Amino acid sequence: MIEEYAIVTAKIDAQATLEIERRTACGLCGQTRGCGNAAWGKLLGHNRHAFTAENLIDANVGDSVVVGIEEQAVLNMAFFLYVVPLMAMLVATVAADHFFSNQLYVILAAALGLLLGFLWVKGYLIGQNKAGVAYSKKYQAVILRFADDKAGL
Question: How far is CA 139 from CA 35, 86, 114, 135, 144, in A?
Fold first, then answer.
């Protein structure tokens, strides 16, 4: 299980909206000096991203919690989101190169193959869930424990 610290920002029934607590290795992020990550952070901004997780421990707004997701779910998502579209792009490129001598058609086929690969992944993942929502329960994060709970560490 991959674990990360987060803060509950909203609670709706058995679901909670979370934001990851930003932790840095050296503490220089946001200061005038520091590593390259601090420079990129200043340039692009350190945006917070909210996500939903199952709230099995009944955490309330403002609680610091440990949220987790299965390693296999992360590996499956990496496969679906990277390998499948790239393989579709490669197959479309080779097929277009075989049938057409114009390189513009090969480039267009590569772009079309990549797009079709992403669309297939989206349809496949939605089709895996019978409720018709865009995610499956096995790919959803779960609140495991409160962050100050040392018994679970």
Answer: 34, 22, 23, 7, 15
